[in-house]
C-alpha cells in the first residue's frame, strides 16, 4: 500500500547520525551519489553498499524502513532492468540465452538496477534521520553564497522542504481515496493498461483537489503567522560542525577513494560473472 512509503518521513531516534549537522549529511549524500555513479563494476558498488550499511547501522533506523523506500520505484527498476537487457549490444564471446538476451546483458541490467536501489536507499537514510526544518536550514546554509547574486536561496530551501514533507502525506491521501473508491465498487486491477489508466481518473481528481486545498491552508497558516520569507530572519538554533561531522566526511572521502581504486585496478580483480 502507498501508506507504507517511508521516503520523506522522519524516524525519531538518538543516534549519532541524527545528531549530525544537516549540512554534513547533505554533503555526505552528494559524495555518496557521486561514488555510486562513478562505480564501474560490482566491486565499486560493494564499497558503496558497505558505506550504506554502516550509515543504516549508526542511524539506528530499522532496515525494513529503508527497504520500504524502494517499494515506490519497483516499476521503474523493472522497466530499467528490461530495457538494459533488451537493448544490450552483444559482443563477440557473449553467452546468448535466447534472441538478444545474454548473460552479460543480465549482469549489466542488474548493475544499473542496483545503482538505482542504492541511490534511493541512501536518500531515504537522509530523510529518515533529518527533520524537514533541519533539511531546510542545512540546504539554505550550503546555498548561502548564491544569495550574493540575488538567488532566492531561502525560498528554494523552503519549497524543497515542503515537497519532502508532502510526499508521505499525499501517498497516505492517495491510499485513502483508493480504498474509498473500492468501497463504492471501483475496479483498479482488472482490464488492460488503458482500462486501468482510465480507472485512476476518479482518484486523480480528488487527489488534486486535496493537494490544492492543503497548499491553500498552508499558505493561510503562514500568512496568519506573519511569515515574510527570508527578509531579516534569524535562527533559533545555530548550525555547528562537530567532530562526528568531520569524521563522517573523512569516511565518505575514503568511500570515494575506494570506488576510484576499484575502477583503476579493476583488471587486477577477479571477474564476478
Largest sheet: 2 strands, antiparallel
Largest beta sheet: what is the strand line-up?
1-2
Number of helices: 10
Order of helices and strands: HHHHEEHHHHHH
The overall strand count is: 2
Silhouette: flat
Question: Can you tag this structure with a few keywords?
Answer:
mainly alpha, 10 helices, 66% helix, two-stranded antiparallel ribbon
What's this model, at a glance?
This protein has one domain. The chain has helices at 22-38, 42-59, 63-71, 74-86, 103-129, 132-142, 153-183, 193-199, 201-224, 243-264; strands at 96-98, 101-102. 66% of the residues lie in helices and 2% in strands.
Give the secondary structure arrangement, pairings included.
Layout: H1 22-38, H2 42-59, H3 63-71, H4 74-86, E1 96-98, E2 101-102, H5 103-129, H6 132-142, H7 153-183, H8 193-199, H9 201-224, H10 243-264
Antiparallel strand pairs: 1-2
Helix pairs in contact: 1-5, 1-6, 1-10, 2-5, 2-10, 3-5, 4-5, 6-7, 7-9
Task: Please characterize this protein's 3D structure.
It is a single chain. This protein is mainly α and 273 residues long. It has one domain. It contains ten helices and two strands. The chain has a two-stranded antiparallel ribbon with strand order 1-2. Strand 1 and strand 2 form a beta hairpin. Helix 6 packs antiparallel against helix 7 and helix 7 crosses helix 9. The longest helix is centred in the middle third of the chain and has 31 residues. The model has no long low-confidence stretch (mean pLDDT 82).
Amino acid at each position: 500500500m502507498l501508506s507504507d512509503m517511508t521516503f520523506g518521513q522522519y524516524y525519531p531516534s538518538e543516534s549519532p547520525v541524527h545528531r549530525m549537522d544537516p549540512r554534513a549529511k547533505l554533503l555526505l549524500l552528494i559524495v555518496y551519489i557521486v561514488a555510486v555513479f562513478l562505480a564501474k563494476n560490482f566491486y565499486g558498488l560493494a564499497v558503496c553498499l558497505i558505506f550504506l550499511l554502516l550509515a543504516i547501522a549508526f542511524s539506528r533506523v530499522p532496515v525494513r524502513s529503508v527497504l520500504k523506500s524502494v517499494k515506490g520505484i519497483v516499476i521503474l527498476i523493472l522497466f530499467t532492468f528490461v530495457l538494459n537487457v533488451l537493448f544490450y549490444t552483444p559482443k563477440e564471446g557473449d553467452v546468448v540465452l535466447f534472441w538478444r538476451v545474454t548473460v552479460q546483458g543480465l549482469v549489466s541490467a542488474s548493475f544499473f538496477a542496483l545503482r538505482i536501489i542504492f541511490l534511493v536507499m541512501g536518500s531515504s537514510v537522509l530523510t529518515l534521520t533529518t527533520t524537514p526544518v533541519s533539511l531546510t536550514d542545512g540546504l539554505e546554509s550550503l546555498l548561502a553564497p548564491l544569495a550574493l547574486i540575488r538567488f532566492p536561496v531561502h525560498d528554494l530551501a523552503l519549497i524543497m522542504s515542503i515537497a519532502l514533507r508532502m510526499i508521505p502525506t499525499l501517498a497516505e491521501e492517495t491510499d485513502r481515496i483508493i480504498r474509498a473508491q473500492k468501497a463504492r465498487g471501483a475496479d483498479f486491477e482488472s482490464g488492460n493498461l488503458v482500462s486501468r489508466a482510465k480507472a485512476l481518473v476518479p482518484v486523480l481528481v480528488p487527489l488534486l483537489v486535496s493537494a490544492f486545498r492543503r497548499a491553500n491552508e498552508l499558505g493561510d497558516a503562514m500568512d496568519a503567522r506573519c511569515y515574510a520569507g527570508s527578509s531579516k530572519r534569524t535562527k533559533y538554533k545555530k548550525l555547528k560542525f562537530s567532530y562526528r561531522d568531520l569524521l563522517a566526511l573523512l569516511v565518505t572521502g575514503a568511500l570515494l577513494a575506494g570506488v576510484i581504486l576499484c575502477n583503476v585496478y579493476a583488471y587486477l580483480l577477479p571477474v564476478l560473472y
